[in-house]
Amino acid sequence: MKPTVIIYLLFSLFVLVLSWEEQNAKAVATLHQEVSAEEAIRLRILGNSDAIGDQAVKRAIRDQVNQAISEWAVELDSVEEAKDVISSNLSAIEEIVAEELEKAGLKQSYQVEFTEVQFPTKLYGNLVYPAGVYDAVLITLGEGKGENWWCVLFPPLCFLEMANGEAVETGQETGSESEQEEEAEDEVEVAFFVVELFSNLVDRIFSSEQA
Fold first, then answer.
1. 153 with 82: CB under 8 angstroms?
2. Sign of the CA dihedral with 45 first, then 77, 79, and 26 last
3. What angle do CA 84, 101, 109 make, to 5 degrees?
4. Domains of the chain: which residue ranges?
5. CA-CA distance, 207 to 211, in Å (whole number)?
6. What is the rounded distance in angstroms from the CA atom of residue 46 to the CA atom of residue 52?
7. Of 24-28, 124-128, 201-205, which gets the smallest average pLDDT?
8. Residues 4-14: pLDDT tens digits?
9. I need a labelling partner for 87 at 20 to 30 A (CA). Which of 1, 93, 168, 195 fits?
10. CA–CA separation, 173 vs 122, rounded Å?
11. What 3-state DSSP class applies to 181?
12. Residue 208 half-sphere exposure, CB side, CA atoms within 13 Å?
């Protein structure tokens, strides 16, 4: 088989793979709606450490803070209103943190801020919150070196995060572990298909030349 034919076949295979990637990207885009950072207010809690006691306190604070903010923001219609309500109630959030630390018998330092915080990508159903800087309530307990937890305060989605368990920042955070495993399996299958197709093509080319 002539070199020009081989080049043409390889180029065709390359175009085929690119077309598949483009169609896959379009399919994903139609299934998910991206939410702008300007449309959300988030919560991030940094645990003092990964010790069982510190993590238990972090979760207790998470529950109480989320309940309080949900009550404040239940009738709010805009993110700007939510910002005003949350920022004006930071002292109430501080009281919640102090109370939970006291219940746990901990004389631990803490800090409560309403500030800009960096978040990784997160998926809630069909809503995608892309990685970026969001306005957020940031609660740092003690040294803030433990496993952290985050959610979306407005619109309220923290209850979904609580149902899914802890949110830990890793390289992959768009979806549940099962979804990630399925996506990984699909990618492996596609990669294997492309490799097998290319291998068969090469075998045919060389077998034709030897014949």
1. yes
2. positive
3. 75
4. 33-164
5. 6
6. 14
7. 24-28
8. 666 666 666 66
9. 168
10. 6
11. helix
12. 11
| Among candidate residues 153, 126, 148, 115, the one with its CA nearest the CA of residue 39 | 153
For the record, the structure tokens of 207 come out as 């077998």
Ranking 40-44, 129-133, 204-208 by mean pLDDT, the lowest is 204-208
C-alpha–C-alpha distance, residues 17 and 197, integer Å = 11
Query: At residue 6, what is the residue type?
Result: I
- Model pTM? 0.62
| Residue pointed to by tokens 């970026």 | 132
Residue linked to tokens 């800087």: 133
Q: 105-110: long-range contacts at Cβ-Cβ below 8 A with a sequence spacing of 24 or more? A: 106/53, 106/57, 108/48, 108/57, 108/141, 108/142, 109/142, 110/139, 110/140, 110/141, 110/142
CB atoms within 10 A of CB 102: 11
Give the three-state DSSP class for 147: coil
Provide the residue type at 100 as one letter: E
| C-alpha to C-alpha distance for 25 and 181, rounded to whole angstroms | 18
Per-residue pLDDT of 174-187, as tens digits, reads 333 334 444 444 44
Of residues 56, 58, 68, the one with CA closest to residue 140 = 58
190 token code pair = 């596609």
- Token pair listed for 67: 């309940």
Tokens of 9: 């076949």
Contact 39, 130 (CB under 8 A): no
Q: How far apart are CA 122 and CA 175, in angstroms?
A: 7
Q: What is the mean pLDDT of the chain?
A: 75
